[in-house]
Amino acid sequence: MKHICFAALFVLAGIASAVQAQDIFDVSLRGGVTMCQIDGDNSGPYNKLGYQAGINSTFTVGGNWRMMVEFNLTNKGSYVNKIDRTISLTYVEVPMMLTYGFNEGRLRLGAGIAPGILAKAHVSTSGEYEPTQSRNYRRFDALPVCAELSYRWSDHMAVFCRYSRSMVNIAKSQSGTYVLVYGNSGQFNRFITAGLSYTL
To answer: Which of 20, 132, 116 is nearest to 70 (CA)?
Structure first.
């Protein structure tokens, strides 16, 4: 896990240094609040709060199109009201999105994928830690899809809103595999993030 984090930070440091040499890159720090749920756990919609913090870089791929690569820490999960259970899942993610800029790039729309490694799972029922339930989540969420809208109102500051949903079952104990299959019985992260970013 530590090796992956160091490798990602090394790559981002290289990108940041490239910003000094070329004007085609930008680098941003960002953070926000996530409103989460897990499809398939019988919980209510978006009733758990989490967080997202990270660093990203975008680079031009032609015209108004840019590629965004990000390294972040995202807290997902859900709250199951019926049994007073909180599921907290923290992932190290590497979102990759193709974006299109409007209004001289101040408004951006993007879509892509955000694969992640589960760094920590903590499930509690009525405040009591549940070790068996905490071990029920897969270490790798290979195919979350995501979409983002951002607006930069100054040279450095922007607001963003991101939607993300797992397409592959995140739970070990359920037989469902792909969310696109009708009648799937798996569990799938879904969340919305709202936050701020600062472009260096």
So the answer is: 116
pTM: 0.84
The whole-chain average pLDDT of the chain stands at 85
188: exposed, middle or buried (Cβ count in 10 Å: 0-12, 13-18, 19+):
buried
Q: What pLDDT, on a 0 to 100 scale, did the predictor assign at position 176?
A: 47
Backbone angles phi, psi at 36, to 5 degrees: -120, 160
Residues 67-101 as b/e (b if ≥16 CB within 10 A, e otherwise) read: ebbbbbbbbbbbbbeeeebbbbbbbbbbbbbebeb
Q: What is the DSSP string of 79-143?
A: EEGGGTEEEEEEEEE--EEEEEEETTTTEEEEEEE--EEEEEEEEEETTEE-HHHHTTB-SEE--
Per-residue pLDDT tens digits for 177-195: 455 544 556 788 999 999 9
> How confident is residue 152, by pLDDT bands cut at 50, 70 and 90?
very high
Q: How far is CA 116 from the centre of its chain?
A: 8
